[in-house]
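debug: dumping io for the single-chain case to check the tokenizer round-trip. Nothing else runs in this session.
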Amino acid sequence: MEALHAQLDLNTAIFFLMAFTALDGLIALLIWNGHRQMQGLATIATGFLSFGVAVWMLPATTILWVTVRNTLFNVSQALATEGMAQLLGKPRLPWLPWLVAGFSLLFWPWALLYLPAEYTAQIRTIVSSLLSIILVGRMLWLMLQEKKQTRLLHYVTIANQCLMILTVLHRLYQVISTPWNDASFYSAEQAWFYFLLCLEANFMFVCQLIMVGENVARQLHQRHAELSSEVQLRSHLQRKIADALAEQLRIRAERHRFLQLLGHEISTPLAAIDRSAEMIQNKPESMPKRIPTIRSAIRRLFVLTQDLLLTERFCLELPKKESLEARQLLQEAIDQLEASGAMVELQLQGGEQPLPLPGDREMLLLALHNVLHNAVKYSTDAAEPVQITLESEGAWLTIRVEDSGIEGLESELQFAKQQFFRGSNVATIPGNGLGLYIVDQIIKNHGGTFDLANREGGGAAVTLRLPV
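debug: decoded output
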């Protein structure tokens, strides 16, 4: 070992240190050129290149070049430290390299000019070593706080930085414990110091490159997650746009159908009036026969107008919140229908005890009237009564109306609540297709549900559920 120790000369150590640090700086610069978003890489590259230039200037002896060399040494370590802080995403000290540069530019000329010759080399070495320990110690502190890197890389980097501090401390011990002069700079111990420093600096650079790789991988993973999120967001927006477009097309088709049906409902009685007026004009004696037709057509138009106004009013307005009693409200609707000449008996069951029902009296009364009117209108057997059942089920009130009339076609039941829809099997019975639509809108506005189904054994069954 002693023979090997003696064989390493200073020039060889300086060459290795200069070549490897300069190469490390160039590699870092090239990587930064391809990944400029990597914070700190350019600063690290500048630090290594500055260190390589300082090593190249080691043989310098004049005050100017010694000052420049030592300033580069110290500043390069400060740059590497701040570059690592940027790389790790830790708080930076941007003023640190400037502080180190200012101190070096002031201290080294003063030490060379005014310190006693026998102590100049020793004091310069102590100051330089202390600066190195402080700067490498900051690197070690940064790594101790780091949590993002892999555990192996974390511990290996910390171990390498501890070795660097121990190497400088060993040199500091040699300077303090043994006589130290300019000749000591060219000793075998100094050569080994630079050689070990070369190995440790390059190992640190390798660790920093691995950190760069991990940061790139982390950024790529984050970008992939962002792109995936953006793709999902765009897909969601496309679905919403498609749904909105489909809804617009549905509304347009519904409006077209509405206008067609409205035109038909209006034109039919108007045509009857026109034909009757023409017959009266041609044959005045037919007036008594045609007057009832005209009046019937006018009544049809009046009912249609009233239903349209009710649709606008009760389907768009918010219902009032009144305290009602369910059986009393149902009985009132039954009485109104019987007073208008209903030919079918209406039987009410349930609700012997008072059942409170919050809601808009006028709206709910209209909905019940429309349901009961349909049950009476489509009943084919006057001897078979319409069954009305009133039940309370927890927080809900259920009203069920069953008749023995015409069943709806199964394929058409889903359209029964649409405006102006009329089943193909009831086209001969008067009506405008607005009754059940109004019922559905009123019940929805009250937070309830309206179901229509064919009754087992014939007829229809309407179920209204309202919250109490």
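debug: round-trip ok. The two ends are 98 Å apart (CA to CA).
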